[in-house]
Amino acid sequence: MENIKLGLKENWQQFTLLVLVNMMVGGMVGLERTVVPLVGTDEFKIGSDIVIFSFIIAFGVVKAFTNLVSGVLADRYTRKKVLILGWLIGMPVPFLLGWGPTWNWIIIANVLLGISQGLAWSMTVNMKIDLVGPKKRGLAMGLNEAAGYGAVGLTALLTGYLASTYGLRPEPFYIGIFYTIAGLLLSILVIRDTRPFAKLETKQVAVTASGETAHKPNLFWVFKETSFKNKNLFSVSQAGLINNLNDGMSWGVFPLLFIAAGVGLEGVGWIKAVYPVVWGVGQIVTGPLADRWGRKPLIVWGMFVQVLGHIVIGLEMFDPLTAGLVGSVLLGLGTAMVYPALLAAVSDAAHPSWRASSLGVYRFWRDMGYAIGALMAGVVGNFFGLMWAVHIAGIITLLSGIVVWVRMKETMNKNLTK
């Protein structure tokens, strides 16, 4: 490792392997997108939206707090060790989802899944950022998130097909057993640690584009800096939270909403698949655009495109299946615009000496959006109906986009990306 160099071209082999690993990581989340809410209503006969969405709340809260410490662990130990730990903790998940005898077992599975995702997905993000350096961050994050969320969508579609053919459990969860074994073996056998690349960049960067300097990775200090002291990092963190609020809302609401509207299980599978697939594949394009156009335009307009998705679904402009598909495409497209730009903006603003911790804080706020979105949807759904959860999510998304428009300054150093 003495002659290490930063860059995507210079490290394409390891980068490609990390993309493959993140497909397995994303696939584990895709296991739940179509089937688990229906397991709650059909198999366990749960009538409360809040109780059904409790698995998403548990996942989101646990993943958020795990993200928070993952950066500290990555800075203190090696990225590879944290990645392997994430896979080991996730090993029981498909078995609990497929054979758990009560709803509490589903909750336990989601606690473990949240820890696993917080460690494993965080490390694939950090490791790719370490490898590529500042010039291709948007592209790197686009490819990483494309692989992860593309796998979320394809797995959601496949589990919907398996559930309609064989039943809700256990067949759809066999896929998760493959993901955990393959992901763990790849992480142990072929992935190399990337912390030396971050140390190299630390020596090369005195001050970031946002004026941030080197600092000993103290979590409390980084938390304050990322959450509210730095205007750019605050803008990014709140936008990430609202973006995942939309995902958490749709995760729980869409299967129940569209089944009640007369859409079949396979149709719901397509609706649930389209959102993350467009989100994932779209980032192959939007990631490089974030390196060319800058981070802020994609974040602002991505939030506004998501608002259009809420409008299409919420106003019932088409029949339920068409509205669900068109709205999900718009939600996916808007999220594809936002996601790599947000991660790249954090990486721009935070100094390499505390970047992993800052990314952990950003991902803490972002993934709290899962829990907040599911909780909001459950409360609103119980009192006003599930469609109102869609309306409120759209209003909040519009306000978030305006905050970024007003408060955030461009973080990309254009001299480095030429």
From TrEMBL:
Example of a GO cellular component annotation carried by this entry: plasma membrane
Database matches in Pfam families: MFS_1
Keywords (A to Z) from UniProt: Cell membrane, Membrane, Transmembrane, Transmembrane helix, Transport
Domain Major facilitator superfamily (MFS) profile: 1-195, 232-418
MF annotations from Gene Ontology: transmembrane transporter activity
InterPro entries (UniProt xref): MFS, MFS_dom, MFS_trans_sf, MFS_Transporters, Sugar_transporter_CS
Cellular compartments annotated: Cell membrane
Residues annotated as transmembrane: 12-30, 50-70, 82-99, 105-125, 146-167, 173-191, 298-318, 324-346, 390-408
Membrane disposition: Multi-pass membrane protein
Name by which UniProt lists this protein: MFS transporter
Organism name: Pelobium manganitolerans
